[in-house]
Amino acid sequence: MSSSAGRIGLLSLRHALIGLLAVQPATGYELAQKFDVSLGTAWHASHSQIYPELARLLEAGLIEVVGEGARNSRTYAVTEAGRDELRRWLLEGEANRNQRNETAVRWFLLALLSPEDRRAAVERELAFTEEHAAQLRATAEALDALPAKHPFRTTVDLGLRTNVVMQQWLREQAEGD
After folding, report:
1. Cα–Cα dist 8/97, whole Å
2. Full-model pTM
3. Residue 169, number of CB atoms within 10 A of its CB
4. CB 121 within 8 A of CB 113
């Protein structure tokens, strides 16, 4: 990986963490869980990536410790400087539009399989997208039950819409044989 690609990745992690903390203070462990639930389809971040980045954000004054718990756990919150940085990044920064998406590569290469194997692969992918859509619907229901509108609720709708398009495409591939 080139140093610029690594730097772009760190910036994305940095801003994703600031964004999650802008919604609600959290521990590193809670942030890892939130990544899996909310950003998991767009970005994976392990504990070994999150904790060093939290230390860098703390050192930069973009987040602060607002609580300490058992086993040296810390609860972090975004600072005004962190909110300013997030705003700057969203408005002025240019996103790295390159993606590494194994699913997209697999779908690209489906045509290389025999019709029988392709159908099996498409059926497996279709089952996954249907399961993912069910998870998104459950997330939407949970967010809708909150007393206040959750800032990421519209992103769940985007995921549901994207899943519909992917399911339609997969069904077309299954019928194309």
Report:
1. 10
2. 0.70
3. 15
4. yes
